[in-house]
Amino acid sequence: MSNPKDAFQELVRIFSSRDNKVLEIEIIPPSLGATFLQDGCSLGITKKALVQAFTVARQLFFDRLMPMSEDDLQATLPASAQSRDTDSGITEIMILFDCEHLTACNWRKRRLRAAMAHCPGIPNQTSAATEVLEAELTLMSSYQCSPLHRHTKSPTLWHHRLWVVVHLLQRRHWSAEDLLRLQRTELDIVLRAGELHPKNYYAFNYMRQLDILLAATVEKTTKPSTWETCSPSVVGQVVDWCLANPRDISGWSFGLYMLSNALEQHSRVNALERVVKFALNVGWEGESLWTFVDQASRQFRLESVIEDIMLLHCDQETRTRDFQPVQDSRQNKSWQTWLARAKVYWVENQARDT
């Protein structure tokens, strides 16, 4: 498929037929002998075909979409499905090619505003505008959860996603259970993006902003207890991810943020115990993990928890020789202090094995 218009039409067809499902998009090498490869929600496209589709989409965007006024956008809403799909597909292709194309993202915001003005929200009902916003979220997920070069860490796309969620929250009443499901869904998206692009500051910063937004929203609900009860499970999910990606400082920083929002101290204790035991058992010396241990122990006054775990792993002789009570203040400690203590355990354990 060497014709740019054919490449454009094929991508429009794929995007318009996804039925709000999340696509997994990947750039494939031309050596495979195919321009497009699709298996269910998995899509492969060559770089050449994407460039060809982008050139057509960009021309149509500036010729047809950019001159549209707000009234023109309103008038397109009752248009045929094929016309709407083509208009939407133009910017979808542009963003697939260039995730920082702010003009294309802003046009999509204008289109969403027109849909919200055309279909005002009805309490306790799902309006057409709500469906459009939810479809926009699945589109963003297709970009941000795909093995693409820049999309998983795009500040433009994460800001656009937050904008969509803000307006989605305003469209209808949300129970605490609904908000919890939304939080977990978005957390899954963020953690997936963090796996695809390590040290993904923009993804975790989005989750911080969303957490603040959801916490403010849940205060207006009648069952805040549901949100509070399920908080430890969310913290546990974040700690699980951090232990699976122990070099990721952005993940540990977000984990520290989640612990600061935990309502019960035992949630923090359990999380810190898991991290310290993991590090001791696998011999982990990475700075990111031990920085988390140090900052968590300082912030939540849990130095004694770490001391107890390390003492528990050593014999009596080592406890007496190497783990004397520390007289210096907490300010003089650092992550290297805890790492040095861990090394004592590793050396002793190795000597015992030999």
Detailed description of the structure:
There is one protein chain. By secondary structure, the protein is mainly alpha-helical. It has a domain at 264-354. The protein is 69% helix and 4% strand. The protein has 16 helices and 3 strands. It has helices at residues 4-16, 47-65, 70-76, 81-97, 102-118, 128-144, 155-169, 176-196, 201-218, 224-244, 249-261, 265-282, 287-299, 303-312, 316-322, 335-353, and strands spanning 24-28, 36-39, 42-46. A 3-stranded mixed beta sheet has the order 1-3-2. A hairpin with a 2-residue loop joins strand 2 and strand 3 (42-46). Helix 1 packs across helix 2 (47-65), helix 3 crosses helix 5 (102-118) and helix 13 (287-299) packs across helix 16. The protein is globular. Mean pLDDT is 88; it is low at 325-331.
Q: What is the global morphology?
A: globular
Main sheet summary: 3 strands, mixed
Cα-based radius of gyration, to the nearest Å: 25 Å
Largest sheet: spatial strand order:
1-3-2
Rounded to the nearest angstrom, the distance between the terminal CA atoms is: 65 Å
Number of strands: 3
GO molecular function: protein prenyltransferase activity
InterPro entries: Prenyl_trans_a (IPR002088)
Protein name: Protein prenyltransferase
Keywords: Prenyltransferase, Repeat, Transferase
